[in-house]
Amino acid sequence: HTHRIAVIPGDGIGKEVVPEGVKVLEAAASTFDFTLDFERFDYANAEYYAQHGKMLPENWFDQLVGFDSIFFGAVGWPDTVPDHVSLWGSLLQFRRHFDQYVSLRPVKLLPGVTSPLVGREPGDIDFYVVRENTEGEYSSVGGKIFEGTERETVMQETVMTRTGVDRILKYAFDLAQTRPKKHLTSATKSNGISISMPYWDTRVEAMAARYEDVRVDKFHIDILAANFVLHPDWFDVVVGSNLFGDILSDLGPACTGTIGIAPSGNINPERRFPSLFEPVHGSAPDIAGRGIANPIGQIWSASMMLEHLGETEAAAGILDAVGAVLARGGASLTPDMGGQATTAGLGDEIVTQLTGE
Amino acid sequence: HTHRIAVIPGDGIGKEVVPEGVKVLEAAASTFDFTLDFERFDYANAEYYAQHGKMLPENWFDQLVGFDSIFFGAVGWPDTVPDHVSLWGSLLQFRRHFDQYVSLRPVKLLPGVTSPLVGREPGDIDFYVVRENTEGEYSSVGGKIFEGTERETVMQETVMTRTGVDRILKYAFDLAQTRPKKHLTSATKSNGISISMPYWDTRVEAMAARYEDVRVDKFHIDILAANFVLHPDWFDVVVGSNLFGDILSDLGPACTGTIGIAPSGNINPERRFPSLFEPVHGSAPDIAGRGIANPIGQIWSASMMLEHLGETEAAAGILDAVGAVLARGGASLTPDMGGQATTAGLGDEIVTQLTGE
Ligand SMILES: CC(C)[C@H](C(=O)O)[C@@H](O)C(=O)O
Ligand SMILES: CC(C)[C@H](C(=O)O)[C@@H](O)C(=O)O
Questions:
Q1: What is the reported pTM?
Q2: B chain contacts of residue A116, beta-carbon cutoff 8 Å
């Protein structure tokens, strides 16, 4: 097998952690005997924006559409490009045009990682957040009236389609069905948001009727967020709209102490278009350029990418290697985890663990 | 002074905890020498709905508008009334018609209360969430097209007005100015929600220019939620839109272990209309009718109500009494806190502490 991978480091620490991800992917390819064909693209970053006044070239779609996956670092450099410009000009374009309608994020308490929650052990917390990734609250539909006056009024539309809601629910129910607990939790707010959220609930009920073996419950987003802190052991697969999924998929990793190392997939399940894998952390301007960023989020994202590409053994191999290095702890971790390693040092450690050399 | 208070117990445990709140208020009035004139209203509950097909009588506004405050229990009984019906038919009507545009909730780690967060001590966490309470994401504007077909599309409008945004920001900045740290955090999502949230940010910047002594920062809601868990000590006054404030004001009390006992105020700061004080917890159908609900959320809400009415000494007295009873702990607390007391028993304990008898 040969998989064609587009590599886009982006901004800030994206540039530092992506090479570590690539290093680990190359080691996995030779250990597990498949071929990865990388091509690097130096756009979707602040330098490109400074030169061209936009984040991407005209023909980005044609350049990227033929790849099997995109291996992405991070985008965002607020000193020179406002966040909504850099994100709507790149990452959110990829999500929409490549119809990456699933954002998938594991929430998992790993050995060796300190959780901020009292008394939780590895194994206690192990679930997925499945987020709708193309529509909902992230529309650019809306506008202003009476602009600049005291009567100024701003409208922003949340748009949910049956197609959009049903396909994310189907993905989440399918995922729940593969899990031992077969339990799905839906995030709603139908008690306050009176049109879109009751609609979401109705579609969940309709889908649930087709998955009789899946146990379904729902929580309003306010108490659901609270329950991530109070009862993280309750969850197995949690599905939410674009905004609710966004919030929960940062909050979940925060609860397991993994926000700095959590991965994410922006997935087009049918593989009509390339999916994109990226760490949850952003470009981290505060530590960028110092070679101390933790590469595990990027490397864990590499594992998710291989899983998506069907290289399940290699995917598991990378995750096991990460787990072993984390469990060992100590100086070979980066400073954010109390160690003394550089970004590249920790990447090397994981390669060594993976290849058994 | 005489303050006229409308008492609305509502549904479920609201009926059990409200009498304890009233009991404590009466004790406070006689101890601190002012008069409270209570009138009870048996609407905004499922029984009323069953009889009348609506949550409130036609003339509710006229009945309630003359009161100085509304002392509210909880509403919601999903077995017989769908949540969005009960809430939009009562609580959300009060918020809108009485222009209770501030929702105020303390997030405070109290002695004797177990926080789910590792290593946090009383005093470490002590902030307010200020939530816009009338507009924003909680609009009922929107609708469906292609209903019932595969092309079904649902729209729901978020509406922000300059008046609405500026007045909540002003309240939050004013509050920040009274606090030792003078620090305000704004919840945004301008990187994903591209019209309303950048507008919110602009108004925060404009308001900040008028409060030079207040230190201002902002976080996107996803990472802000994560930071409630990771760095709750960072916050002093946190201000957010209706939805973001809703999420944060459940998440905050979850982090301090107080979700079952936290209070809230729905406030019309100008006192043109009655403000409403209610516990954060809902009607709790699972434990309703057993006389074991914890009345502290209701009693703490009583303290907030007296503060709003200008009875600051009595307000502090109630909060001190609650703190002392919590710190003592043991059997005199309700079962949710590991004790053996009934709702009324814990109410009596707090009265005794307050009156020193
Ligand atoms: C019940 C619901 C409509 C309400 C809200 O979201 O405003 C509740 O969660 C609250 O926070 O008071
Ligand atoms: C950067 C931002 C637009 C993005 C989002 O909200 O989708 C990020 O928070 C994420 O979760 O990938």
A1: 0.94
A2: 117-118, 229-230
- Report the residue count for chain A: 357
pLDDT band at A122 (very low <50, low <70, confident <90, very high): confident
To the nearest whole number, what is the mean pLDDT of chain B? 96
Residue A357 has pLDDT above 80, yes or no: no
Which residues have a Cβ under 8 Å from the Cβ of A306 and sit 6 or more positions away? Answer: A25, A28, A312, A314, A315, A318
> Ligand 2 centroid to A135 CA: how many Å?
13
Residue type, A354: L
Residue-wise pLDDT for A182-223, tens only, equals 999 999 999 889 899 999 999 999 999 999 999 999 999 999
Spell out the domains of chain A, with CATH numbers in brackets: 1-101+268-357 (3.40.718.10), 117-257 (3.40.718.10)
Chain B residues 80-109 within an 8 A CB cutoff of chain A: 83-84, 87-88, 92
Q: What is the pLDDT of residue A191?
A: 85
Beta strands in B172-262 (DSSP E): 183-188, 215-220, 237-240
What is the residue with the minimal CA distance to atom 3 of ligand 1?
A: A192
Q: Which residues of B touch A114 (CB under 8 A)?
A: 118
The predicted structure's pLDDT at residue B122: 86
Alpha-carbon distance values, B47 to B64, B71, B86 (Å): 20, 19, 11
Residues B22 and B185: their CA atoms lie apart, in Å, by 35
B194 CB less than 6 Å from ligand 2? no
Strands across the sheet containing A126-132: A35-40, A2-10, A69-74, A275-279, A263-267, A102-108, A126-132, A237-240, A183-188, A215-220
Q: How many residues does chain B have?
A: 357
Using a 6 Å cutoff on CB, does residue B311 contact ligand 1? no
- In angstroms, the CA B282 to CA B43 distance is 16
